Amino acid sequence: MRVGITKDSALIIVDVQRDFMPGGALPVPSGESIIPVINRLIASFKEREMPIIATRDWHPKDHISFKPRGPWPPHCIQGTAGAEFHPSLELPERAIIVSKGTSAEKEAYSAFQGTGLENTLNKLRIKRLFVCGVATEYCVKETVMDALKRGFQTFVIEDAIKGIDVRGEDKAKGEMLKKGAVMTSSPELAFF
Ligand code: VGL
Ligand code: ZN
């Protein structure tokens, strides 16, 4: 759907970190393919001085989501190379970094969970969120669901998200649509 990026919009880039990209601990297949698209989005938002928020999974080394307590291999451990943003991601200096999953005993897929993100967005008078990143089935979906619950108009940029597999991606997209997310793509965005 054709969508206007108005002055009350922010870009949210979910978890574009080394560990979620090929070669990392928990890779999204071909995850790096969305990075050039995200870099163009960053340039467009930056040019217009609109907020750019980059989330990162930022776990302590004994995080509850790690095997055998949880489903995942250790990933995005605070301060390690795997937790760094991918080197190809062109994050501007003034990007707002949101760290999540920072408590050992709590899983947090959503960027709104225990981060103060809602407060940050309200202070900036943001009403519309444009979401991209990985993984569609986990952190992208949960972030979108929480944004909708909190009353943000939430747009998912389909050519700038990537999931683990097609079935999971389709299911996640269906769930997001059902709750009111709007699916769009980077060529359909019109900046005002
Ligand atoms: C994620 C699995 C575990 C994600 C984070 O960013 O989607 N997935 N932790
Ligand atoms: Zn994680």
Unreliable spans: none
Tell me the fraction of residues in β-strands, as a range.
15-25%
CATH class (first level) name: Alpha Beta
CATH topology: Rossmann fold
The CATH architecture would be 3-Layer(aba) Sandwich
Supply the key terms.
single chain; binds zinc ion; two-stranded parallel sheet; alpha/beta; Rossmann fold
What does this molecule look like?
Helices cover 24% and strands 22% of the residues. It has helices at residues 35-47, 117-123, 136-149, 166-178; strands spanning 3-5, 9-14, 52-57, 96-100, 128-134, 153-162, 182-184, 189-191. The model has no long low-confidence stretch (mean pLDDT 97). With 192 residues, the chain is α/β, with parallel strands linked by helices. The protein contains four helices and eight strands; from the N terminus they run E-E-H-E-E-H-E-H-E-H-E-E. The strands form two sheets. A six-stranded parallel beta sheet has the order 4-3-2-5-6-7, sandwiched between helices. The protein has a two-stranded parallel ribbon with strand order 1-8. The protein has a single domain (3-191), classed as Isochorismatase-like (Rossmann fold, 3-Layer(aba) Sandwich). Strand 5 (128-134), helix 3 (136-149) and strand 6 (153-162) form a beta-alpha-beta unit. The protein binds pyrazine-2-carboxylic acid and zinc ion. Zinc ion binds next to loops.
Please summarize what this structure is.
Helix content is 24%, strand content 22%.
Give the topology.
Blueprint: E1 3-5, E2 9-14, H1 35-47, E3 52-57, E4 96-100, H2 117-123, E5 128-134, H3 136-149, E6 153-162, H4 166-178, E7 182-184, E8 189-191
Helix pairs in contact: 3-4
Bound molecules: pyrazine-2-carboxylic acid and zinc ion (ZN).
